[in-house]
Amino acid sequence: MRTKQILLIALSTLVVVELIILAQTGFSISNKRTSPLHSEETPEQNLEIAKLKEKLKENPENTEIFIQLANLYFNKGKYAEAEDLLTSALNIEPKNEGALLTLAHVYRYQYKFPESENLYLQALNNSPANEMIYIELGKLYRNWEKFDKAEDSFMKAAALNPDNDLIFGYGLGYLYRDMGEYQKAEAMFKKALVLNPSEFNYMGLGDIYRDLENYEESEKMFMKALEINPDSEAYLGLGWLYFNQKRYDEAEKAFKEFLSRIRPKGEVYYALSQVYLRQERLGTAEEMLKKSIELAPSSEAYTSLAELYKSQGRSEEAEKIINKTSN
To answer: Which residue has the higher pLDDT, 308 or 298?
Structure first.
């Protein structure tokens, strides 16, 4: 078995920042820079993709190349291409853990929860002592609002490795936050920080303090995360902090920093749309909502777009969206 790697990933869910994906391959879903509002390929990405495609022609059974290509497409928001490549890898090697876990994450990122669960369970069947898979499965259940299953998965991970800070911050900390148990959530993130003073654990505390409207402490935590890593996903939490304080120009800047430094992400486009709605920049807000739905369709984005259409007297378009989401 290869050495475990924690693959740093852009991930908020509908309500929380998503931080991490695990895979036991030699490749990672990296923080590739993209255009703030588009997922167009940079010359470097084009060259890297071309090189990998040439390698794949020479080695058509090499699953690692499929995974590398899938990671590049995922980073650019091209989920269908990533899915196809990972499915091809699994057709060649059905138990390839890197392909299973990466495809599970791609599904989870798009809120395809049953498909994601199936792949995590397959991976656990192959590696029942891997606490990281339990953490990722717990994250899925938390996103899915199956909180009892989420807590059970995180506890199983803790039984396997009680010194893994991700269990307490990324796992239980955000779970208890979603459940509204802020005292327990804060305690979990502080425990995680003792184990590992990472940017992610500071971000978690920043989210907790923002929810509690302790904005000064929240900003300190996000800034601490950015000191550790200037390309941190803390820009998303920081943007929502500024949004809550009606500091809309600063919120817009923070959300755009996330997109330019990390990758296209549906939730971040949704966040930008809310800024533009407050600023009455309705055309741009509509563009951001459509982009959000394209990348990761969520009820929040559909509802916001329908409400925007209603406010403009575009009742037929609003009705189409309402009918689509109710079916």
So the answer is: 308
